Amino acid sequence: MSRRKRQLVLSMFVQQYGTHANAWRRPDQAAGGKPDFERWARLVKLLEKGKFDLAFFADFVGIDGDNLANLGRRPRGEGFEPLSLIAALAGVTENIGLVATVNTNLNQPYNVARQLASLDHLSGGRTGWNIVSSLSEGAIKSFSVRDPLDHAGRYERAGEFVDLAKALWNSWDDDAFDHPDKSTGQFHAASAAHPVHFHGKHFDVDALLDIARPLQGYPVFFQAGNSDRGREFAARYAELIYAAAQNIEEAKSFYSDVKGRMAKYNRDPDHLIVSPGLFYHIGRSRDEAQEKLESFQNAVDVSGMTQFFGVDLTKYSIDSPLPEHLDVPANGQGRWQQAVELARRENLTIRQLIVRFSAVQGHRTVIGTPVDIADQIEDWFVKGAADGFNLKPSLLDDDLEDFINLVIPELQKRGIFRKEYTGKTLRENLGLPRPANPYSRF
User: Fold this and answer.
1) SS3 assignment, position 276
2) pLDDT value, residue 2
3) Domains in the chain: ranges and CATH
4) Are 98 and 36 spatial neighbours (Cβ–Cβ below 8 Å)?
5) Residue 59 among known ligand-binding residues
């Protein structure tokens, strides 16, 4: 495919209230947490109005219920299962990509392959899969996981899972069902089918998928992993990776490292979009933006935070420095290392580290006027630190509307972000190639 002019990729981590620690307590928020599809639909339509590439839906599945007092301080109950949600959203949107998280530890490849293929057809080719291989204690207890895999084993299973899903999507030619012959009774040619015989360490499947190949060939593959294994997995499979970096040096190092690993898998570095998370505070002046940031950080509730990334810190004073020797968590090892390095670099206490990481989760924060925000985004984009950003507005809907109404026009004026959608599918809008079926004759 011909290379297009490089364009900024914008997505949003869609949450019910926003990332502000107490956003749910605002007077203008509706009381209660029952699922409200109209609210989710309105947010995604707003993103589509802003010409965003995609809306991203995480899935922190599994609650063990061991600490009800602490659990009761967090908003719950309003979230939909992601695949169900994007199926409904596909019917009320036209252009924006819809990305759902599916955990490879808690599902089977055949079922996920047919679900995502179905969603790709239902959405007109706008589906993405955020591949997650983490395994929380809550998920272990919720899904009866008897023998949980270690960090390396989970990535190994995830690789097999994706390989098998791809094989299942390739089990039919693109046009396998396009030429039924009523006169002969031949609905499709036998040569259009490519039975899967997959025998790996984690999966044994002999089958054909029971739905036509996805419109995009495969849904777009998303992933977030900062550990060495996570980066290697991204270099092999991912087409967009969610990253975390607080300064341009960290971002450029991650960017060059993960793209530099792709050659061994015969992949083009341009076929992996690096998208760091981005918190922002927009003000009419820089002072106003700074006040918003301070208000956001001051709202972090550290009461009941006895663990950090699953590491127990109860035996240490919350106002003491982070201890020198701590266990490495089973999940989020790359992010944990970032947090430790931040604490060491800036001599933060445990309380300060929790506030900093709970407020922005290790991601970059930009503050200032709309022009300032656009300047900072453009700087990372042109200097090889990012291909796009995954926005994390602190308050919905105020911060999102401000970004769309004030920052997007600045980015468009600079020629680095679209004014209209040009493609029909998510792949086309992201500038990613459609994978050919390696088993097809033509």
Assistant:
1) strand
2) 44
3) 9-286+365-430 (3.20.20.30)
4) no
5) yes
